[in-house]
Amino acid sequence: MPMSLNQEIRLLSMVDILGPLSDEEMEELAKRAPDTFLEKDDILYTPKEGTERLFILKKGRVQLYEVNGEGDEITLSVIEDGNVFGEMALTGQSLGGLYVRALTPTTVVSLRREDLEHLIMKKPEVGLRLVQELAEKLRESERRYADMVGKDVPARLATQILTLVDSEGVVSSESYRIPTHYTHEQLGSMIGCKRVAVTRAFRKLQESGAVELKDRRIIVKDIDALKDLAEAS
């Protein structure tokens, strides 16, 4: 169901890079930039698109992934609401070779190059915030890659589960619940290994008492044990 203009403006105001905009400028942006509504598992972007777009994720969660020569999906990142991503030379953002899939019902704003240029010309502070956010994303990607190198699969999986706890974990009765259902294939694509390896690694994490599965959701029972497993070489 399409949102009212007031709802669109409210969600846009929660995006950090748009903080400098006034209410009137936020309303103008909401009118200029169309919303795209996605259901779970809908594809927003494929390598065939080839058009310059900067996406503002207003609501939901999307997965950025590529497909290797064997047809396996490799997840590069999971984007949470309030963030920006896309394909635009102006910002150094690229989705070359990548697919974007909705992990939950999602609302996205699509900005054309001319829309972004217009926005930055009117409010240079938006451009500055955008540069700062993209630089932080680059640093985070480098940290994530460095953290994975040299680790065995159980340690990689433990590290990824900790990342999911940070981004979406719900605290309840001294445990952490990850509300999104991730298949072993999806987890494998996030840490660069096959499904069968994830299954073996998850069994090891379960045997340690760090995690369990309940209603197909990951429950972290012992966060300290999970951190120890993530640091294992």
Characterise this structure:
- The mean pLDDT is 78.
- It is built from eight helices and twelve strands.
- It has 233 residues and is α+β, with helices and mostly antiparallel strands.
- The protein is elongated, with a radius of gyration of 19 Å.
- The N and C termini lie far apart (49 Å).
- Strand 4 and strand 5 (73-80) form a beta hairpin.
- Helix 6 packs across helix 7 (195-207).
Strand % is 15-25%
Into which percent range does the helicity of residues fall? 40-55%
Order of helical and strand elements: HHEEEEEEEEHHHEEHHEEH
Given helix and strand content, the structural type is alpha+beta
Strand order of the largest sheet: 1-8-3-6
Anisotropy-based shape: elongated
Low-confidence stretches: none
Distance between the termini: 49 Å
Main sheet? 4 strands, antiparallel
Q: Please tell me how large the radius of gyration is.
A: 19 Å
Mean pLDDT value: 78
Number of strands: 12
Counting H and I runs of at least 4 residues, what is the number of helices? 8
